[in-house]
Amino acid sequence: MYSERVSRLAGAVVWTNSPSRDGVGRVLPDGCMDLLWNDGRLLVAGPDTRAYVNDEGTGAWAGVRFYPGTAPALLGVPAYELRDRRVELADIRPAAEVRRLTASVRAAADPATGLEEVAHRWAASTEPPDPLLRRLVAALGSGRPVAATTDELGLGARQLHRRSLHAFGYGPKTLARVLRLQRALALARAEVPFADTAARAGFADQAHLARDVREFTGVPLGVLLGGRSG
Protein backbone atom coordinates (compact mmCIF):
# COMPACT_ATOMS: atom_id res chain seq x y z
CA MET A 1 0.00 0.00 0.00
CA TYR A 2 1.30 3.42 -0.98
CA SER A 3 0.76 6.55 1.13
CA GLU A 4 2.28 10.02 1.20
CA ARG A 5 2.16 13.25 3.14
CA VAL A 6 3.51 16.76 2.75
CA SER A 7 6.95 17.17 4.30
CA ARG A 8 8.02 20.02 6.54
CA LEU A 9 10.82 20.48 3.99
CA ALA A 10 9.44 22.97 1.48
CA GLY A 11 8.01 21.32 -1.61
CA ALA A 12 8.95 17.78 -0.57
CA VAL A 13 6.74 14.74 -0.04
CA VAL A 14 7.32 11.90 2.43
CA TRP A 15 6.03 8.54 1.26
CA THR A 16 5.92 4.86 2.15
CA ASN A 17 5.13 1.85 0.02
CA SER A 18 4.58 -1.69 1.27
CA PRO A 19 3.64 -3.89 -1.69
CA SER A 20 1.06 -6.50 -0.71
CA ARG A 21 2.45 -9.13 -3.08
CA ASP A 22 5.36 -9.88 -5.34
CA GLY A 23 5.16 -8.13 -8.65
CA VAL A 24 6.42 -5.34 -10.83
CA GLY A 25 6.17 -1.73 -9.73
CA ARG A 26 6.43 1.07 -12.29
CA VAL A 27 7.82 4.43 -11.14
CA LEU A 28 7.06 7.13 -13.69
CA PRO A 29 9.14 10.20 -14.60
CA ASP A 30 8.07 13.22 -12.58
CA GLY A 31 11.03 15.63 -12.58
CA CYS A 32 11.95 14.69 -9.00
CA MET A 33 14.71 12.88 -7.13
CA ASP A 34 14.19 10.78 -3.99
CA LEU A 35 16.10 9.76 -0.91
CA LEU A 36 15.11 6.13 -0.26
CA TRP A 37 15.17 3.54 2.51
CA ASN A 38 14.80 -0.15 1.77
CA ASP A 39 15.96 -3.17 3.72
CA GLY A 40 18.26 -1.12 5.93
CA ARG A 41 19.88 0.70 3.00
CA LEU A 42 19.95 4.38 2.05
CA LEU A 43 19.66 4.97 -1.68
CA VAL A 44 19.07 7.83 -4.08
CA ALA A 45 16.73 7.73 -7.06
CA GLY A 46 17.95 9.99 -9.82
CA PRO A 47 15.72 11.82 -12.29
CA ASP A 48 14.00 9.45 -14.69
CA THR A 49 13.50 9.84 -18.43
CA ARG A 50 11.65 6.53 -18.63
CA ALA A 51 9.68 4.38 -16.23
CA TYR A 52 11.75 2.62 -13.60
CA VAL A 53 10.51 -0.94 -13.23
CA ASN A 54 11.02 -2.30 -9.73
CA ASP A 55 10.66 -6.07 -9.55
CA GLU A 56 12.53 -6.58 -6.28
CA GLY A 57 9.58 -8.13 -4.41
CA THR A 58 7.54 -7.07 -1.41
CA GLY A 59 10.06 -5.24 0.76
CA ALA A 60 8.81 -2.04 2.36
CA TRP A 61 10.11 1.26 1.01
CA ALA A 62 10.15 4.77 2.43
CA GLY A 63 11.26 7.94 0.74
CA VAL A 64 11.48 11.69 0.60
CA ARG A 65 10.64 13.04 -2.85
CA PHE A 66 12.31 16.41 -3.31
CA TYR A 67 10.80 19.28 -5.26
CA PRO A 68 12.20 19.27 -8.83
CA GLY A 69 15.66 20.82 -9.00
CA THR A 70 16.38 20.95 -5.25
CA ALA A 71 18.04 17.59 -4.53
CA PRO A 72 21.42 18.12 -6.27
CA ALA A 73 22.41 20.91 -3.87
CA LEU A 74 21.49 18.75 -0.87
CA LEU A 75 23.30 15.68 -2.19
CA GLY A 76 26.32 17.51 -3.55
CA VAL A 77 26.09 15.85 -6.96
CA PRO A 78 24.67 17.14 -10.26
CA ALA A 79 21.43 15.50 -11.32
CA TYR A 80 22.72 14.41 -14.72
CA GLU A 81 25.17 12.02 -13.03
CA LEU A 82 22.20 10.14 -11.53
CA ARG A 83 19.84 10.26 -14.49
CA ASP A 84 17.87 6.99 -14.82
CA ARG A 85 19.82 5.44 -11.95
CA ARG A 86 19.24 4.11 -8.42
CA VAL A 87 22.46 4.27 -6.39
CA GLU A 88 23.58 3.60 -2.84
CA LEU A 89 23.99 6.83 -0.90
CA ALA A 90 27.49 5.61 0.00
CA ASP A 91 28.40 5.91 -3.69
CA ILE A 92 28.04 9.69 -3.55
CA ARG A 93 28.57 10.59 0.13
CA PRO A 94 31.38 9.69 2.57
CA ALA A 95 31.01 6.22 4.08
CA ALA A 96 31.29 7.49 7.67
CA GLU A 97 28.47 9.98 7.08
CA VAL A 98 26.27 7.30 5.54
CA ARG A 99 26.84 5.03 8.54
CA ARG A 100 25.74 7.83 10.88
CA LEU A 101 22.68 8.59 8.77
CA THR A 102 21.75 4.91 8.56
CA ALA A 103 21.94 4.63 12.34
CA SER A 104 19.77 7.74 12.76
CA VAL A 105 17.09 6.39 10.42
CA ARG A 106 17.10 3.06 12.26
CA ALA A 107 16.67 4.91 15.57
CA ALA A 108 13.75 7.03 14.35
CA ALA A 109 10.13 6.26 15.13
CA ASP A 110 9.81 5.00 11.56
CA PRO A 111 12.01 5.13 8.44
CA ALA A 112 9.98 7.86 6.75
CA THR A 113 10.36 10.16 9.76
CA GLY A 114 14.07 9.37 9.90
CA LEU A 115 14.53 10.18 6.22
CA GLU A 116 12.66 13.46 6.61
CA GLU A 117 14.97 14.44 9.46
CA VAL A 118 18.04 13.65 7.35
CA ALA A 119 16.68 15.77 4.50
CA HIS A 120 15.85 18.61 6.87
CA ARG A 121 19.38 18.61 8.29
CA TRP A 122 20.84 18.71 4.81
CA ALA A 123 18.61 21.63 3.88
CA ALA A 124 19.61 23.54 7.02
CA SER A 125 23.30 23.25 6.10
CA THR A 126 23.08 24.25 2.42
CA GLU A 127 22.17 27.41 0.55
CA PRO A 128 18.44 27.90 -0.16
CA PRO A 129 17.27 26.55 -3.53
CA ASP A 130 17.68 28.85 -6.51
CA PRO A 131 14.31 30.64 -6.85
CA LEU A 132 14.81 30.78 -10.62
CA LEU A 133 14.56 26.99 -10.78
CA ARG A 134 11.25 27.02 -8.92
CA ARG A 135 9.95 29.66 -11.34
CA LEU A 136 11.06 27.47 -14.24
CA VAL A 137 9.24 24.42 -12.86
CA ALA A 138 6.11 26.45 -12.16
CA ALA A 139 6.06 27.94 -15.67
CA LEU A 140 6.69 24.68 -17.50
CA GLY A 141 4.35 22.81 -15.17
CA SER A 142 1.56 25.18 -16.13
CA GLY A 143 2.20 24.59 -19.83
CA ARG A 144 4.21 27.69 -20.71
CA PRO A 145 6.41 27.15 -23.81
CA VAL A 146 10.12 26.67 -23.17
CA ALA A 147 11.17 29.56 -25.42
CA ALA A 148 8.79 32.02 -23.76
CA THR A 149 9.84 30.84 -20.30
CA THR A 150 13.52 31.27 -21.19
CA ASP A 151 12.87 34.86 -22.23
CA GLU A 152 10.82 35.57 -19.11
CA LEU A 153 13.61 34.28 -16.87
CA GLY A 154 16.18 36.47 -18.61
CA LEU A 155 18.52 33.61 -19.48
CA GLY A 156 20.09 32.51 -22.72
CA ALA A 157 19.08 29.12 -24.07
CA ARG A 158 22.53 27.61 -23.48
CA GLN A 159 22.75 28.92 -19.93
CA LEU A 160 19.30 27.57 -19.10
CA HIS A 161 20.21 24.20 -20.59
CA ARG A 162 23.38 23.96 -18.47
CA ARG A 163 21.54 24.87 -15.30
CA SER A 164 18.75 22.45 -16.12
CA LEU A 165 21.19 19.57 -16.65
CA HIS A 166 22.69 20.22 -13.22
CA ALA A 167 19.36 20.67 -11.43
CA PHE A 168 17.03 18.25 -13.25
CA GLY A 169 19.34 15.85 -15.07
CA TYR A 170 18.15 16.90 -18.53
CA GLY A 171 17.32 20.02 -20.52
CA PRO A 172 14.25 22.22 -20.17
CA LYS A 173 12.49 20.65 -23.16
CA THR A 174 12.60 17.22 -21.56
CA LEU A 175 11.49 18.70 -18.25
CA ALA A 176 8.54 20.34 -20.01
CA ARG A 177 7.55 16.99 -21.57
CA VAL A 178 7.81 15.17 -18.23
CA LEU A 179 5.65 17.78 -16.50
CA ARG A 180 3.15 17.69 -19.37
CA LEU A 181 2.96 13.91 -18.96
CA GLN A 182 2.19 14.35 -15.26
CA ARG A 183 -0.57 16.86 -16.08
CA ALA A 184 -2.09 14.37 -18.49
CA LEU A 185 -1.91 11.49 -16.03
CA ALA A 186 -3.63 13.57 -13.35
CA LEU A 187 -6.48 14.35 -15.75
CA ALA A 188 -6.77 10.79 -17.04
CA ARG A 189 -6.82 9.38 -13.50
CA ALA A 190 -9.69 11.78 -12.78
CA GLU A 191 -11.54 9.99 -15.62
CA VAL A 192 -11.29 12.84 -18.11
CA PRO A 193 -11.69 11.30 -21.60
CA PHE A 194 -8.36 10.71 -23.31
CA ALA A 195 -9.04 13.18 -26.16
CA ASP A 196 -9.95 15.92 -23.66
CA THR A 197 -6.94 14.97 -21.52
CA ALA A 198 -4.65 15.48 -24.52
CA ALA A 199 -6.10 18.89 -25.34
CA ARG A 200 -6.12 20.17 -21.76
CA ALA A 201 -2.61 18.93 -20.98
CA GLY A 202 -1.09 20.62 -24.05
CA PHE A 203 -0.68 17.78 -26.55
CA ALA A 204 -1.37 18.28 -30.24
CA ASP A 205 -3.92 15.45 -30.20
CA GLN A 206 -4.68 12.10 -28.60
CA ALA A 207 -2.14 10.30 -30.81
CA HIS A 208 0.58 12.67 -29.55
CA LEU A 209 -0.42 11.87 -25.98
CA ALA A 210 -0.33 8.15 -26.72
CA ARG A 211 3.19 8.36 -28.18
CA ASP A 212 4.56 10.27 -25.21
CA VAL A 213 2.92 7.95 -22.68
CA ARG A 214 4.40 4.88 -24.36
CA GLU A 215 7.84 6.52 -24.68
CA PHE A 216 8.03 7.59 -21.03
CA THR A 217 6.19 4.74 -19.35
CA GLY A 218 6.70 1.76 -21.66
CA VAL A 219 2.99 0.90 -21.83
CA PRO A 220 -0.16 2.38 -23.42
CA LEU A 221 -2.21 4.84 -21.38
CA GLY A 222 -5.10 2.39 -20.98
CA VAL A 223 -2.81 -0.27 -19.55
CA LEU A 224 -1.24 2.28 -17.23
CA LEU A 225 -4.71 3.13 -15.93
CA GLY A 226 -5.68 -0.46 -15.33
CA GLY A 227 -7.40 -1.29 -18.58
CA ARG A 228 -9.39 1.91 -19.20
CA SER A 229 -10.16 2.39 -22.88
CA GLY A 230 -10.62 6.14 -23.22
How does the overall form come out from the CA principal axes? globular
The gyration radius over C-alpha positions equals 18 Å
Helix vs. strand class: alpha+beta
Q: What is the string of SSEs from the N terminus onward? A: EEEEEEEHEHHHHHHHHH
Work out the helicity level.
Answer: 40-55%
Our estimate of the beta-strand percent is: 5-15%
Number of E strands: 8
* Lateral strand order in the biggest sheet: 1-2-7-4-5-8
Total number of helices: 10
Q: Provide the domain count.
A: 2
The stretches of 5 or more residues where confidence is low (pLDDT under 50) are none
Average the pLDDT over all residues and give the rounded result: 93
How would a textbook summarize the main sheet?
A: 6 strands, antiparallel
User: What is the distance, rounded to the nearest whole angstrom, between the alpha carbons of the first and last residues?
Assistant: 26 Å
Structure description:
It is a single chain. By secondary structure, this protein is α+β, with helices and mostly antiparallel strands. It has two domains: 2-124, no CATH class; 131-224, Orthogonal Bundle (Arc Repressor Mutant, subunit A). Helix content is 46%, strand content 15%. It is built from ten helices and eight strands. It has a six-stranded antiparallel sheet with strand order 1-2-7-4-5-8, with helices on one face. It has a two-stranded antiparallel sheet with strand order 3-6. Strand 4 (34-38) and strand 5 (41-45) form a beta hairpin. Helix 7 crosses helix 9 (206-217). The longest helix has 18 residues, at 172-189. The chain is globular, with a radius of gyration of 18 Å. The two termini are 26 Å apart. 34% of the residues are buried. The mean pLDDT is 93.
